[in-house]
Design brief:
With 406 residues, the chain is α+β, with helices and mostly antiparallel strands. It is built from seven helices and 26 strands. The chain has two domains: 90 residues, Fumarylacetoacetase, N-terminal domain (SH3 type barrels); 289 residues, Fumarylacetoacetate hydrolase, domain 2, CATH 3.90.850.10. Helices cover 14% and strands 29% of the residues.
Length: 406
């Protein structure tokens, strides 16, 4: 190996995720994460080793690079894997090609034109339904027949590290018929993963479950913030609005679907049987370990959740097939959220709403304070990685601090 990769690094030789970075002397550009370093793809291109128009690597987002297609993007990833393991490769003895991640600033990896958020964890949907409805009717009648989703706001999706202000909106106080306006008192995180599409379709075209993975470039961690008190008042009859559109954070490195291939697993049994356009063959779920930590200001982080992406009832192929079955067109760089990822155990719930069960079971922080929901000054950190037979592929983290309402 021509560069040291720490043991248990998320960014092993098996990963090679793509992102956009900059330094004091390097403009925003494409790079790949390897260990504690970033390989500058613009600098590599100057060695004349790529057979495509490398101007796409100089762009401030990866959309044009992704548009070259998987034949090229996968070849770039495999070439880098080979070069990193060859002591005589084009990368050897060229330290100027590498930048420490600690010396770089990460940026949004893609321009996101459209964003859709699904609701695909049966454990999460059951928990929420139990809280607000008859537990015997926790799931709505359509839930096991379609991957439920809604169109979100793309403009407020930001990269890890950018702080957000507590959102404001209307809420309905308990035992009142009159709403009030002010900062949300029930700000929550939602532990999600997102996939990013890598091909366009035309209006009227559909994508089958067999084709779906050809249209998925890779995945990111997603914190889809939610203002629960605002949402409770506004969501009838059209669903989330101000409770969701104030911010969502994604991790800066896009892990390719190909890097995640070794971690495929079967998903939960789907009963009743789905309609033919949602049927699929093979293993479409992924064994990705997830965790969430809360770090109060100037205080040590407390991990509050351990979950896993393998729990998802509806998989990504089904989500994309359903999204396009009516002819909805998709574009390169579009983001699709999984919905909150909860498991069967209480410590695997993917939101404060569930972990603290609507505030009735506050969580203890290491500084002795309690949390029913997220407070000002808190930083929420999400991490994810897959590991099997000595191979580790991770996402790094997505984190953000909550500032007081403006």
């Amino acid at each position: 190996m021509i560069i040291n990769i720490p043991e248990n690094s998320d960014f092993s030789i098996h990963n090679i995720p793509f992102g956009i970075f900059s330094t004091e002397d390097r403009t925003p550009r494409a790079g790949v994460a390897i260990g504690e370093h970033i390989l500058d793809l613009v600098a590599v291109a100057e060695l004349d080793v790529f057979d495509f128009n490398t101007a796409v690597l100089e762009k401030e987002v990866l959309n044009d690079f992704i548009s070259l297609g998987k034949e090229i993007t996968n070849r770039v990833r495999k070439d880098i894997q080979h070069w990193l393991q060859d002591e005589d490769s084009v990368l050897a003895r060229k330290p100027e090609l590498f930048v420490l991640q600690s010396d770089a600033q990460m940026h949004m990896p893609v321009y996101i034109g459209d964003y859709t958020d699904f609701y695909s964890s049966i454990e999460h949907a059951t928990n929420v339904g139990t809280m607000f409805r008859d537990p015997a009717k926790a799931l709505m009648p359509n839930w096991k027949h379609i991957p439920v989703g809604y169109h979100g706001r793309a403009s407020s999706i930001v990269a890890s590290g950018e702080p957000i202000h507590r959102p404001k909106g209307q809420t309905l106080p308990k035992d009142s018929d009159t709403p009030i306006f002010g900062p949300s008192q029930r700000l929550d995180f939602e532990l999600e993963m997102g996939f990013i599409t890598g091909k366009n379709t035309n209006l009227g075209e559909s994508i089958s479950t067999d084709e779906a993975e050809d249209y998925i470039f890779g995945m990111v961690l997603l914190n889809d913030w939610s203002a629960r008190d605002i949402q409770k008042w506004e969501y009838v009859p059209l669903g989330p609005f101000l409770a969701k559109n104030f911010a969502s954070h994604i991790s800066p490195w896009i892990v390719t679907l190909e890097a995640l291939d070794p971690f495929r697993v079967s998903g939960p049994e789907q009963n009743p049987k789905v309609l033919p356009y949602l049927e699929f063959e093979g293993t479409k779920n992924y064994d990705i370990n997830l965790e969430v930590g809360i770090s109060p200001e100037n205080t040590e982080e407390q991990v509050v959740c351990h979950s896993n992406f393998k729990y998802m009832y509806w998989n990504m192929a089904q989500q994309l097939a359903h999204h396009t079955v009516n002819g909805c067109n998709i574009n390169i760089g579009d983001l699709y959220g999984s919905g909150t990822i909860s498991g069967k155990d209480e410590n695997s719930y993917g939101s404060m709403l569930e972990l603290a069960w609507m505030g009735t079971k506050p969580l203890k922080m290491k500084d002795g304070s309690e949390r029913k929901f997220i407070q000002d000054g808190d930083t929420v950190i999400m991490r994810g990685f897959a590991e099997k037979e000595g191979k580790r592929v991770g996402f790094g983290e997505v984190s953000a601090k909550v500032l007081p309402a403006k």
